[in-house]
Every structure is written in structure tokens, then in C-alpha cells.
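Discussion board: Methods & Data

I've been asked by a reviewer to show the raw model output for two of the constructs in my manuscript, not just the figures. I'm not sure how much to include, so I'm pasting the format here to get opinions. Each protein appears as its amino acid sequence followed by a line of C-alpha cells. Is this the kind of thing reviewers expect to see in a supplement, or should I convert it first? Here is construct A:
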Amino acid sequence: MRRGRLRLPLPKAVKGPFTASGTVKGPFTAFSGSRDAAVGRVRRRFGDDHSTTRLPPSAPSGAAVPGTAPGRSASVTRPEPPPEIADHLAGQRFLVIGTGAPAVSALPAGVLELEALTGGGPIRIALTRQSLRFLTRTTLTAVTGRKAFVDEWGTDEPLNPDHVDIAQWATVILVYPATLHFLSRLALGQCDTPVMLALQCTTAPIVLAPSLPPGGFESAAYRDHRQRLETRPHIRIAEPRAGYSMRTGADNVGAPCPFGELLPLVTALLAERGQG
């Protein structure tokens, strides 16, 4: 048999919904703040060259960097916990839920912030199936060192707790971001996944950070569902912000607040119950 070079066809030009400036257009919801403000936050956080924390030249390979846990990337830095919030959160067991909006990509950083505030306390992470389009479990584990479970029935993975375990274990529940679909399911009493059933049965504090599409904030659906949820004494909803829409290119109200702004709402709920 004659051997020769394997010839592969050259790829055709990629076509897609690009704008004239080369940015991708798609059905995405805004992140908090305008586009210029978002770039400014990145530069203030990481520097103009996007540099990250590195080992000093004299440090041996594998040495730990102050502020990072063993086995974590040296590029991860953690904020100093404000004592007034950290004291309220001590001893709580957190369930953090990510849903299918682009802002879920910020969830790993939020988990690290929560971990710093609680001193590494118990935290479980659940991801909806739709959220995996924007954040993989592999990425989340690489950044946080924690494994997440997917919120769906019928899985054989031993990591996945059932709805009774979730409802009885969690003493505080954070949903970041919370899509309009997730909010509507919760408001209407649906129980179609383990996490949703647990949320319907628990009395633990629940704090939601809505992430809404253009027009969602003004819609009757959001107003009705929000009003229904606000009648439940253990639920608080963080106010959405104006943000840049990747779909329309305009600013609209619907971006979730920064993750850290959920925590004062948690402490207020705990204080009302005499737990803070």
C-alpha cells in the first residue's frame, strides 16, 4: 500500500454575526456597568498589562503566595474580609447557585470572595444545565478548588445531593445570576429540578441577583414574579443595574449587581431572625 501525505481541505472563512468593529453579536445579557466602565475595572484590578500576582524571583518553585490556599493558583488574590460582615456570616452553610446568563462567568471570583469572608466555611455550588454554556465545572474547580453539581434529576454522579439534603443542609442560599426564567420558576412554585424543589421547601434566607434581557426589567412578567417573591419573608432580591447589552450594544437595566453586594442582604436577613 502506497503511503503519502495526508491532505486536508483548507478551512473556509468563518462566518458569524459580527459587527463592523469585529465584535460578536449574540443573545447575551449585559454585565454590570457600561463597556468602558468594565474595561476600567479590569485595568484597575489587574493593571494595564493585565498582570497578576506572581511569585517573587527569589521564591522557590511551588512556594505558597500569601492570600492563596494550598494547591491554588498563585494568580488568585483574595480580599480582606470586612469584620462586620464576616462576623455575621461565620458558621453559615452556603449554597451558591449559578444560572444560564453570561454573568455566571464571574461566579468563581464570587465564591472566592465568600470563602475569604467565611474563613473557608462550608460552601456548595450548583449550576443549572444552561449555565454550562458560559461556565464549565472544570473552570470553576480550577479557580475555586471546589466541585459543582449540575441541577438535574436522574444523574448517577455521587456528588449530586438530593432535594432533601439540599434543603436541610443550606442555611443561606445565593443565586448569582438569577435569570428571568429561574425567577419565574421560583415564583410560580415549580419543582422541576432538585435545587428548585429544595428552594420551594426551605425557609433558609435566599438572596437573588436578577440578570435580565433588554426590556426584561420593565416587563410585566418580571414585575409580577418579583412582587410574588417579595411576599416570602426569607427572600431578598438585589436591584439590577444598568449594563452593556452584548446583543443590542446599548445600556439597559438588567445586569446583576456585583456578587459582594448580596452579602449585606444576607446579614440583614440573619439579623431579622436573631442569627446575626
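Construct B, same format:
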Amino acid sequence: MEVEADLRPILGSSLVRLDSMRIKQIQNHLVYSTLDQLAILASQAANLKGPLTSCEKLVNSDHVVYLKWRYDEERAVSILLGYAKIGHKNLFLNDMEQKTYEGSMLCLLDFYVHYAEQRQGHGKEIFDYILQMEKIQPHQIALDNPTVTLLAFMHSKYSLSRPIWQNTNFVVFPEMFAALNSATCSNGQKAPDGWWRPSTPRRFGGGSNETRWLDSAISGHPSKGHAMSCPVDADQTTEGTLANRANQARARKAHILSSKPLW
């Protein structure tokens, strides 16, 4: 997405962290509108009803956007290449052994690189910048309803190949639970602060002690099935992603209409 202006005095470096305060300080409608348009493209690529990110939402939340851009001196335009939105959420998660965990976790809520700039390393630069600024490891980020393209990205770039789907459509990886179950990981990384295993099952509805197990999750594509140890083998093209998202939507609708409640 192009902006017919030099954004270097406004944004600074080519990788920038934008929280609510920084968004307010920008005070440039061109930046706001272009970022919103980029978010609309992201929603269209994921076949969503509307964008997950907007400057108006960012100002009124504690979410943070990491933006990558560049300035083309020959054409005198600034180009927004891609972005990622993160935020903390309190999650109840189940590992592959159906043990329940609860805690606040950093989540990847939206992630997109412009279709004309994909497969050039911009996505990994953005993700690596998040890891650097937030001081975390790749397995310590939960993915909010990721596409197969994002799962394949995590597999190829960070060797995270066994996604564990939750009933809330968040995805985590076994490496995170390995950190939680020991004082330190094999690489010396500690488990995220604030995480624990509840001593009793979580209560739902009328007070029955039942936990939403992973087996109740809705399957949308092969990596959502119960053979969680299989590496992700996904069609990473735009057409493949759109077709997969459409299949997910149909599967969810059929499940809701024909199945019993998950709990």
C-alpha cells in the first residue's frame, strides 16, 4: 500500500512498534487510512466479514501493531509492506494429554504482508522483531484462528510443526507446555509468568465440573484433526488459503447445525 508522502519523519525506522499512544501521536490521516486499507486486504485474503485491525480500534485498546514499511526515493512514495497485531489474553488451554492450563498469554491476533510483497522475507522480519521487542520465544505466542499459510510459516521458519487447536480456535504448540511443566526449558527459557494448572476443573453452565477438551474441537482442515503429531502440509497460495477458509466455514456451520453443544 502506497502513501504519496515521506513518512520517515513520522514513523522513523522501517520496522516500527505502534501502540495506542504512538497511534495518537502520528496525527496523519494518510497513515491511518492506508493502514486501514491494508487491514481490509488482510480480511479479504482470509475470507473474513470485516477487518480485524483498524486505527480506531487500536487507539481504544491495549493491542500493539508492528509495521514494516519502506520509502521509495525514485517515486517519492512510502510503501506499507505488512503488519502484525498482538495483544495479551487470559486463556484456558489443553495440551495433547488433555491437561488444563490457565494464564495470560501474548497472542498473534492479525498478521498480513501485502500480496505484492510476499515471499520476500518481510513476514519473518516482522515476527522476529516482535520476538525481540517482547523478549519471548516463538512457541510462547498463541495464534488466533490461524490460516494454513500461517501454520506453514511457523513450521518452515520456526520448526513448530505440531499445532494444538483449542475450542476457542486459538493454536498453541507442545513446546509451550514443555516449558510450563519444568522449571526451565532445555534452552534455559523459563515458562511465561502467570501460568498455572488449575487444581480443579473449570466450571461451566449450571455448575457441572467439565472441561472443554481438545477432542471436542471443530475440525476445519487436516491440521485441525486429532493427528496432531503430523507436520503441516498446506497449500500456501492465495487461492489455496481462500478455498481452505471457505471449507472451514462450511464445516463449522454444519457442525453447529447438526451436533450437540461442545459442553
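Answer (T.O., handling editor elsewhere):
This is acceptable in a supplement if you add a one-line summary per construct. For B, something like: Residues 139 and 176 are 5 Å apart (CA to CA).
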